């Protein structure tokens, strides 16, 4: 056996392993990001108490960093498509971990706001661009890989509240949780570093392309692509529906613990249980949705489930009994499974090989969406959180009206 044949023999298992390791690394980044999201939702009651925050400040903390990040993310998307993706992901991971350490040491509203102003764009670079790389790696399986991505996120959303509860049981608090999450972020970053060659799959498919485009050409091409995408009515509608779906996803999750403490009148521990119910059943739904999307149309599924979500959410707000509210939380977690995966995958499919443009488009719509927590916080401060949450019913209603009627079964 000659030297070349020997090299091929030993390199083949490595080539087979690399896509699986890349998928694992990408899902690890999403897992950590959603662990942070889940922990933040559960930690709001004690965090608000420790830092003496009111509802307006909570709304500002949720809204201002999101708007700031979404103003920066189009630039990240353009640079990603120009060949800078790998450096943005790895640098974003370092900033992501640093921001979590700043959250853990925050002493009041302003230090926490500064930490979140770093965290949100770092999450865009570290996590959103990793998602883009995953989508570019296998264009034929957008919905299925997005479903796996959403499943990893659901595990994180469930694990975050559990970490907060475990920390309290062990005599710690929310600060220890965020410090630990910084360590997990560094572990995910190490995984991505080990497959860093996979972070620019489009560039690998075009070996004759330059490693990086000039910055001026990058932004000119990026803005042209963004304008062209925004000129398409189907793209604009898809962006709007994705943000409407988020009203019953991240926005609702962010207010659940506070709602149970202030409107239902339960303890912080019981409010943490409510978050666990919502995310735990959502995790089950995300496990089930992966094989479901192999057989049924994702768009048809989301439209049908949105009808059930509208009815269940109205009942959740109207019925006073704690047990019924927890049961309806489970229904909401189950029915909203797959929403993000399907609607985000739809954008990637409408814009093939333009994942950076997809990220930039999401930022455009999310600038306005970032105002939603601020509006909700202001309404909650003035009228109560019970009244404020009725606004979220607009989300499922928009999906019912805006998504096309298509056959449920694939093919």
Please explain how this structure is put together:
The protein is mainly alpha-helical and 411 residues long. It has a single domain (17-202, 230-402), classed as Growth Hormone, Chain: A, CATH 1.20.1250.20. The protein is 83% helix and 0% strand. It is built from 16 helices and no strands. The chain has helices at residues 3-51, 55-104, 109-137, 142-169, 174-194, 201-205, 215-230, 233-264, 268-292, 298-318, 322-335, 339-350, 355-369, 371-383, 385-388, 394-402. α1 runs antiparallel to α5 (174-194), α4 (142-169) runs antiparallel to α9 and α10 packs antiparallel against α11. The radius of gyration is 21 Å and the shape is globular. Mean pLDDT is 83; it is low at 6-14 and 202-210.
Topology summary:
Layout: H1 3-51, H2 55-104, H3 109-137, H4 142-169, H5 174-194, H6 201-205, H7 215-230, H8 233-264, H9 268-292, H10 298-318, H11 322-335, H12 339-350, H13 355-369, H14 371-383, H15 385-388, H16 394-402
Helix pairs in contact: 1-3, 1-4, 1-5, 1-8, 1-9, 2-3, 2-5, 2-7, 2-13, 2-14, 3-13, 4-9, 4-12, 7-13, 8-9, 8-12, 8-16, 9-11, 10-11, 10-16
């Amino acid at each position: 056996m000659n030297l070349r044949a020997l090299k091929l023999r030993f390199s083949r298992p490595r080539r087979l392993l690399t896509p699986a390791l890349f998928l694992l690394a990408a899902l690890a980044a999403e897992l950590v990001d959603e662990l942070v999201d889940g922990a933040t939702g559960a930690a709001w009651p004690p965090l608000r108490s420790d830092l003496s925050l009111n509802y307006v400040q909570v709304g500002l903390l949720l809204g201002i960093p999101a708007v700031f990040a979404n103003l920066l993310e189009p630039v990240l998307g353009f640079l990603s498509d120009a060949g800078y993706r790998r450096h943005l992901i790895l640098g974003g991971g370092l900033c992501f971990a640093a921001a979590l350490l700043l959250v853990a040491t925050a002493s009041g509203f302003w230090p926490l706001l500064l930490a979140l102003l770093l965290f949100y764009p770092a999450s865009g670079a570290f996590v959103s661009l990793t998602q883009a790389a995953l989508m570019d790696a296998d264009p034929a399986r957008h919905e299925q890989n997005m479903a796996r991505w959403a499943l990893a996120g659901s595990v994180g959303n469930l694990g975050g509240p559990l970490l907060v509860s475990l920390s309290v049981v062990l005599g710690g608090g929310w600060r220890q949780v965020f410090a630990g999450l910084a360590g997990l972020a560094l572990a995910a970053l190490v995984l991505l570093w080990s497959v860093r060659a996979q972070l620019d799959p489009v560039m690998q498919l075009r070996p004759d392309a330059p490693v990086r485009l000039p910055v001026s050409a990058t932004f000119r091409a990026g803005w042209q692509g963004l304008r062209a995408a925004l000129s398409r009515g189907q793209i604009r509608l898809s962006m709007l529906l994705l943000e409407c779906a988020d009203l019953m996803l991240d926005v609702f999750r962010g207010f659940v613990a506070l709602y149970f403490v202030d409107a239902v009148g339960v303890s912080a521990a019981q409010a943490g249980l409510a978050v666990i119910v919502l995310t735990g059943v959502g995790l089950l739904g995300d496990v089930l949705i992966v094989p479901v999307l192999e057989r049924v149309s994702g768009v048809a599924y989301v439209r049908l489930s949105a009808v059930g979500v509208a009815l269940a959410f109205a009942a959740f707000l109207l019925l006073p009994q704690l047990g019924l509210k927890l049961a309806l939380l489970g229904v909401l977690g189950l029915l909203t499974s797959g929403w993000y995966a399907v609607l985000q995958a739809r954008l990637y499919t409408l814009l093939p090989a333009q994942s950076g443009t997809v990220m930039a488009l999401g930022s455009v719509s999310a600038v306005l969406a970032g105002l939603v927590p601020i509006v909700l916080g202001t309404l909650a401060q003035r009228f109560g959180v019970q009244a404020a949450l009725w606004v979220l019913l607009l989300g499922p209603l928009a999906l019912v009206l805006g998504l096309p009627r298509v056959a449920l079964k694939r093919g």
